[in-house]
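hey so u asked for the seq, here:
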Amino acid sequence: LLLGASFAAQACGPLTTDDCGTVSASGFEFELGYDGTPENGGDHTLQAGLKHGLTERMDIGIDIPYAIKPDADERIGAASLGMKFAVVKDIASIYASYSPGDPGFLAYGAVSRGVFDFIIHLNLGYNGTGVRDLKGAAFWAAAIQRPAGILDLMVEVFGTGKDANCLGGCRMKIAGLGFPSRDPGAGFQQFIG
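ran it, structure tokens below
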């Protein structure tokens, strides 16, 4: 659960596995995702995120979760701030994030590669607790993405050590929403997962 809660914050929506791409310089990317689980009456969460490209190889972002179900006194969760740097543009990147007020952090590397009509994403990282007597966990993730026009189909496996989970999903891309930018050539992308 710790892995899913932290790792999903800056992922290649709707999955937990991230791609290595960054938002273009002065561009914006808005992500809106939904997670639902049937266990124990079901947890349903809406996640909104906004990223901004600082350079062609670096972006920053903020993600905020909203608990739909179960009922809670405070439905808005802790914001997560993250930064991604493309070591080799569109092939390999490094990422780090944290939530203000939380001692924990997340850091990982991502590699993406096109193979035939698919894109493969691999991640390896560490989810630190920031607490001296509470051990963090290394994690791994792998996803296959199949672009199909405005819809991307995805499946992934991810976990820590020998524990693994599998997810599937799709992402719809909506372009041309005219989000204001300092750079008239910069774009705005919206992803709904």
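The first strand starts at residue 28 and ends at 37. Residues 36 and 44 are 4 Å apart (CA to CA).
lmk if thats what u needed
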